[in-house]
Design a protein that fits this description.
162 residues, alpha/beta, 7-stranded mixed β-sheet, two-stranded antiparallel sheet, globular
Amino acid sequence: MLTAVIRVAGSTEALAATFSVLIPAVADGFLGHAVVIDGVGTADVERLADGTGASYLRADGAESWLAGAAQARGDWLFLLEAGDVPELHWAQAVERHLILAPQRPALIPLRGLSGSLRERAGLSLGPRRLRPGLILPKGHALAGRLGATPQRLSVGRERAAG
């Protein structure tokens, strides 16, 4: 089961945009749970998370991914920032990856030149830290690092305003 772990900085509009893309995967049974990590502590974000059946927690900084992973029910996690909107058929691309490379992390990359370049540089040159767009085993997230360079999937994600 896949769990979406979504970091929010107080924007219900951005969170709603991300949820709107995730709901079909819930209906299909592919996405089983979501954890909303609120870095600001906004009552509206908590209500939105509660209204969708997602777990809500208040955490900030780099440790927020670890806190979200600890709350996740699934064996695999999909890390997102509120406002991330994966392209159509993202669930099929992730499912295919999990069948073909069941222990390797994956990345749904940002579309656009600047975002894509920053992601590539961060994954290639820096430490393999947790970041939005990753699909990885829960154990890797709890360790705080990737075990291997993630495979870039053929679908992308965009960032909605909010």
